[in-house]
Structure formats: structure tokens, C-alpha cells
Amino acid sequence: MNRYQRIAWFNLIVIVVAAVATSIAIAVEFHLRGYSTIGLFFLGILVLLKFTPFLFKQPPGPSGVVSDERDELIRTRAAAYAWITFWLVLLVSCFSLWFLIGPQSSVPTIVLPLLAFGTGMVHKIVTSVAILVQYGRGGQNE
């Protein structure tokens, strides 16, 4: 498993752990108090996503090859898939919000950061999954 696959797996594991912990915390707090404000604290787990370049460092020296042309092509395709998905999710969520609430209603202010946060998570998930799928399609010794 190369560096980019380890980063992709780490990203997916951190996102799943954060989503599960946040969902459990919100559900418990809704059950106890009837409303929830604690969910944002558990999303702090996602700060770990910023440490991936430091956790999976490139090997030092010229003999430690990290990537070749195939790896760069896989990363480029993954980024393209992620950006296409990002914009589609953002468009669909904005228009569905408009259809659900209506053109004459106002949008609560919490919706806008949630849209940005949610589409950012979708971007990171699609990038990681695209990297893993593209590496998985190749043969064992490619």
C-alpha cells in the first residue's frame, strides 16, 4: 500500500468516526434535553484530516520514490471526480433547499455553514474513494 492509499484510508476512517460520534452525541442529547448543541464539538475530530501530510511523510532522499506518472494521473482523476461531485452536490442541495422552503421564505443562518461543511466532506470522501478504486483496478504488479 503506497502513501496515497494510506492517506485515503485514514481520511475515510476519520470521517466515519467523526460522523458516528457526532450522530450518537446528537441523538443522546436530543433524548435528554429535546435539542442539541453538542454536535459541533465532536466534529473537532475532523481536525485530524489536516495532519495526514505529517503522518504519512515522503521518504527522505532521492532513493525514496513516492510516486510516478501513474500515481499523478490517479490523483488528478480523483481530484476531477471530487470537484465534479462537489459542484453537483452543492447545486442539488441549494436548489432542493429553494424548492423545499420556497422562494419567499428565508433560510436559517446555520444552513449555509452546513452546506459548505457538507460539500467539503463530500469532496474529501469522493477523493479518497476515487484514489482507492483506481488503485484497486490495477493488477497486482502494476
Q: What sequence of helices (H) and strands (E) makes up the elements?
A: HHHHH
* Secondary structure: number of strands: 0
- Category by helix and strand content: mainly alpha
| Distance, first to last CA | 12 Å
Strand content: under 5%
Mean model confidence by pLDDT = 83
**Helical stretch count?**
5
- Helical fraction equals 55-70%
**Major sheet description:** none
**How many structurally independent domains?**
2
Low-confidence stretches: none
Computed over alpha carbons, the radius of gyration is: 19 Å
What is the chains' assembly state?
single chain
Tell me, briefly, the overall form: flat
What does it look like?
With 142 residues, the protein is mostly helical. The protein folds into two domains: 1-57; 68-142. The protein has five helices and no strands. The chain is flat, with a radius of gyration of 19 Å.
Topology:
Elements: H1 3-33, H2 39-42, H3 52-55, H4 69-101, H5 111-137
Helix pairs in contact: 1-5, 4-5
Structure described in brief:
Helix content is 70%, strand content 0%. The protein has 142 residues and is mainly alpha-helical.
Name its key features.
142 residues, mainly alpha, 2 domains, 5 helices, 70% helix, flat
